[in-house]
Specification:
alpha+beta; FAD/NAD(P)-binding domain; 21 strands; binds flavin-adenine dinucleotide
Length: 429
């Protein structure tokens, strides 16, 4: 079997893998990125958060992203009957220097990032599948991969570090039996693209709408031009009963949310409804000797706050911060330590934790009650906007506002309980 030797092998060329590949290659390291698809490829996950712009700047793709995609200035939340709604505007976000984000078609977006990785000097191979990660004892030492076109003979790629950015395929997490389903959330989704969905006027043309319905929630994501992505995220019980008929399931969800239904009147569906099955999971560990999990390969909970791409790219950035000094000093033993990437894992779990609190909260009426009518006492609205903008490493001042919000939610729940009002948990609706 042929053998290649590199500093780092990255599995997957999505936003996590391409960010890791670019930043490592820019440091002069020998990196190979293996991606089993041919880009551009369709991918769901089209709404970005303002803080991702910091990463675009670091990667050197800000100008291309700005000229290719529509600006997203806010996140509009509305109830199924349309009686309660709120537009969070990113210009109000605490500790966030970016007033807007983007809505992107992922085929174009991910291709921009992966081309940039190639430009930075990484060896990027599309239509190459990683079949296995190689271990010597507990230490990962490389991968076995093969080309999906041409000669299919597998090759061995020896590396000082294996970055698993394989997304929901979670190659390594599954191999090591680390991936655990999140039974509380337990979500699935059905989605498609439309032409001529009604939009907001002016600067909010590109803002996202999140509409609630009894089985879950719906996204409306306008792209540049006249195409809009619409999808429903639903609890598994709702999904289970209807999954054999995605078109019907999708239509039923739309019919259950009056404001979204109104926006879809007269719109033309451009492709069949697609589905993503149960997708809420976390890995017990994010790293070990010679290996580290990046982005969705480590965990994914729920897309309600559009955090997936930002978190994957942040994971990559944090991995690179630790990996570069170790690799550059050519002290691979630093990377063979069980605890070498523990600081990465701790920091990312803290960062993701902010979103996790909000995600679980979104399925709790006590939280929703505050979320739909935030006061700006204690600058709570600014802090919520800050979380929605993707500020995952907030200052203490910022965190204090979020704690204040959590306290108000807690009190809300207690008051409701004392009055005998049920706080419906839509997670299991
Ligand atoms: C229904 C739904 C809606 C979402 N909406 C949003 C949203 O609005 N905003 C947002 O930010 N996020 C959203 N997400 C999440 C977002 O799509 C992901 O978090 C993001 O794509 C993760 O990036 P990644 O690089 O970790 O993984 P991916 O983007 O999944 O990339 C992984 C890559 O690895 C490749 N790969 C897998 N296995 C192998 C292998 N064995 N060998 C070689 N290559 C391999 C795959 O082909 C893929 O290209 C959504 C997710 C879902 C399910």
């Amino acid at each position: 079997m042929n053998t290649l030797h590199v500093d780092v092998v990255v599995i997957g060329g999505g936003p996590g893998g391409s960010t890791a590949g670019t930043l490592l290659a820019k440091e002069g390291l020998k990196v190979i990125v293996l991606e089993r698809e041919q880009f551009p490829r369709f991918k769901i996950g089209e709404s970005m958060l303002p803080m991702v712009r910091e990463l675009y700047e670091r990667l050197g793709v800000s100008g291309t992203i700005e000229s290719t995609f529509i600006q997203k200035h806010g996140a509009h939340f509305v109830t199924a009957d349309g009686k309660r709604e709120y537009m969070y505007e990113f210009k109000n976000a605490m500790d966030c220097p970016y007033g807007y984000a983007y809505h992107v078609k992922r085929d174009e977006h991910d291709q921009i990032l992966l081309n940039n990785t190639r430009k930075a000097g990484a060896d990027v191979r599309e239509r190459w599948q990683v079949d296995d990660v190689l271990f010597e004892g507990e230490r990962a030492v490389g991968v076995v991969a093969h080309a999906l076109d041409g000669d299919p003979t597998p090759i061995t790629i020896k590396a000082k570090l294996v970055v698993d950015a394989s997304g929901r395929a979670s190659l390594l997490s599954k191999k090591l039996n680390l991936r655990k389903a999140d039974k509380i959330l337990n979500k699935a989704a059905a989605f498609t693209h439309f032409k001529n969905v009604k939009r907001f006027d002016g600067k909010h043309e590109g803002s996202i709408t999140i509409g609630c319905f009894p089985g879950g929630w719906i996204w409306v994501i306008p792209f540049k031009g006249d195409v809009t992505s619409v999808g429903a995220v639903m609890h598994h019980s709702y999904w289970r009963d209807k999954k054999e008929k995605p078109e019907e399931m999708f239509k039923a969800a739309m019919a259950d949310c009056a404001p979204v239904k109104a926006r879809l009147e007269g719109a033309e569906q451009l492709m069949p409804v697609m589905t993503e099955g149960t997708f809420s999971y976390k890995s017990d560990r994010f790293s070990g000797p010679g290996w580290v999990l990046c982005g969705d390969a480590a965990c994914f909970l729920d897309p309600v706050f559009s955090s997936g791409v930002l978190l994957s790219m942040r994971c990559a950035e944090e991995i690179v911060k630790l990996a570069v000094p170790a690799l550059k000093k050519d002290k691979p033993e630093l990377l063979t330590d069980q605890k070498a990437f523990r600081p990465y894992e701790q920091r990312m779990r803290r960062g993701m934790g902010t979103f996790w609190t909000f995600i679980y909260g979104f399925y709790d009426e006590a939280f929703i009650d505050i979320f739909f009518r935030p006061t700006n006492r204690f600058r709570m609205m600014n802090a919520i906007s800050g979380v929605l903008a993707g500020n995952i490493f907030p200052s203490l001042k910022f965190k204090a506002r979020i704690w204040a919000m959590q306290f108000v939610v807690y009190m809300n729940r207690r008051i409701a309980k004392s009055r005998g009002i049920a706080m419906i948990d839509r997670a299991s609706a």
